[in-house]
Specification:
The complex is a heterodimer of chains A (88) and B (200). By secondary structure, chain A is an all-alpha fold. Chain A has three helices and no strands. The mean pLDDT of chain A is 93. Chain B contains eight helices and no strands. The longest helix of chain B has 31 residues. The two termini of chain B are 29 Å apart. The chains are: A mainly alpha (88), B mainly alpha (200).
Chain lengths: 88, 200
């Protein structure tokens, strides 16, 4: 799993993280109303494990996703492009 | 995008209800200088802001204002628990109560519902940051005024925290103003809009 992700571009890795985050969010909404569903709970845990790996990889390779996951030695949090700037 | 954290930025633990005080403090949520307007102001202004430092300040202060909405709401919620109809009437909380029961609704102390008319997003870096500096002072004055109306330490503690954050945010927006000025062209001595038509 790690070997495959090393070569991902910034855009591809961000898209993957966005996809997995959305999958988790959908599962969260479902679990809020079905807190005892074992299948959804197992699915959630697997997705979160994948997300954490993607998140850590993105942060160290390309920059922070949140203001408290800056891995670089300088303040890369404010570096553009910001999400609405469409890569400019 | 945003993710919720299940904690208050500063704890709120109020023992005694006080609906008359709640009616005043609700303005720090939905009033003209409240946290809802603050969050919407900064988070709206950041899109056209040309400088990354100021985008960061607007994003991170705006995010903190969302957390302050939650603190003010928690204060109002805890001040209006376990009330009798008599207590509601005596405290003058009946007008709020008849519209919202004890639900938390963004409204000014005067009863005017939250409105975007109390803030601007002007698309001019200097205009916007000047408004933000003023907004932090207006919010600080509001907290100063609230402090005049209570001696309950359970309420004063989180209100004083919120007041201090207004002072800190004023300082940080001052940093933002410095960044904007440093980026102005030396020929732009009247400080025309550095965002439009694209001349900085």
């Amino acid at each position: 799993m790690n070997g495959g992700m090393q070569t991902m571009t910034k855009e591809a890795l961000m898209q993957k993280l966005t996809d997995v985050d959305f999958v988790i969010h959908e599962t969260v909404l479902y679990l809020d109303g079905h807190p005892n569903n074992k299948k959804a709970m197992d699915f959630y845990k697997r997705a979160v494990a994948e997300r954490n790996e993607l998140h850590a990889q993105y942060a160290s390779q390309y920059g922070p996703v949140t203001a408290n996951c800056v891995k670089q030695d300088s303040w890369t949090w404010i570096d553009g492009p910001w999400p609405w700037q469409n890569g400019r | 995008m945003w993710q919720y954290e299940k904690k208050l930025q500063y704890p709120v633990k109020i023992k005694n209800p006080n609906p008359a005080l709640a009616k005043l403090i609700i303005t720090a949520y939905g009033g003209p200088d409240g946290e809802a307007g603050a969050a919407m102001r900064y988070l709206s202004q950041r899109y056209s802001m040309p400088y990354k430092e100021v985008i960061g300040i607007l994003t991170d202060v705006g995010t903190e204002e969302l957390a302050h909405q939650e603190i003010v709401s928690a204060i109002v919620y805890q001040l209006t628990r376990n009330l009798t109809p008599e207590q509601i009437k005596e405290a003058g909380f009946d007008a709020y109560f008849v519209d919202h029961t004890t639900g938390i609704y963004p409204v000014a102390a005067s009863g005017v519902p939250f409105t975007a008319a109390s803030f601007q997003s002007k698309g001019d870096a200097i205009t916007d940051i000047m408004e933000d500096l003023a907004a932090e002072q207006k919010a600080r004055t509001t907290y100063d005024n609230i402090i005049r109306f209570t001696d309950d330490p359970d309420v004063l503690d989180p209100i004083r925290f919120l007041r201090q954050r207004e002072v800190t945010h004023f300082q940080r927006f001052g940093d933002g103003l410095r960044v904007i000025r440093d980026n102005l062209s030396s020929k732009n001595f009247y400080a025309y809009n550095p965002e439009f038509p694209g001349k900085k």
